[in-house]
Amino acid sequence: MALFGMAEHESLPWQPYPELTDDARIERARTFLSHIATRRSCRAFNDQPVPREVIEAALLAAGSAPSGANRQPWHFCVIESSEAKATIRVAVEEEERQFYAGLGGSAWLGAVRPLGTDADKPYLEVAPWLIAVFAQRYADADERDEARNYNVTESVCIATGLLLATLHAAGVATLVHTPHPMRFLNRVCRRPDTERPVLLIVAGHAAEDATVPAATASKKPLEEISSWL
Ligand SMILES: Cc1cc2nc3c(=O)[nH]c(=O)nc-3n(C[C@H](O)[C@H](O)[C@H](O)COP(=O)(O)O)c2cc1C
Questions:
Q1: pTM of the model
Q2: CB of residue 176 inside a 6 A radius of ligand 1
Q3: How does the average pLDDT of the chain come out, rounded?
């Protein structure tokens, strides 16, 4: 039987979430917060391996994300091969040299100055895993009119958030990297041009001498990031 407000459709019973007291809910939410708040972008990795099973679990967590019309419009290309990493590093550093030479524009360059980043990206070869995240504009590239995906970027970014959270829970450091433009990733990852590369995630363990930019340590307080009606 269809519920009020919902078109008739096949349905399965709701799987109940754990029964908790409100105090327990608050505690769980705060416990997760104190764990996730320790995540920091890492820009110096060592070559200590991370088991493939960790990456697989993180990808499945990403794949569990909500998505527009449940199209799941994402593809994750997982890169372990040294040759592919070297190719990516060369391509990224070429783009980044142009960015830092001025192509990024003075406002953008000013915004990233406190991070102390530059065009050298040795970690792209050192870290055990790179994950290129692609957004699929079509569910079926041959049937573009019928098979358009919806809310593609939003869906892909939510999925990537779950990926990052799972890797952090597993004690794996990450960096979200956005070389600009990123079309070379289609070539390296052998993905069709109907897919748009959105992010390149670096995953591994922090080098002993890794640092984080002081400018990123503080996050906006609740009053600033929220309003309540
Ligand atoms: C969409 C996106 C793109 C980013 N691109 C880059 C990048 O290209 N290079 C880089 O070093 N960091 C990049 N970052 C990382 C941010 O600089 C970092 O998240 C921010 O400074 C806050 O620091 P935190 O992650 O340690 O909290 C990116 C982050 C996001 C979410």
A1: 0.94
A2: yes
A3: 94
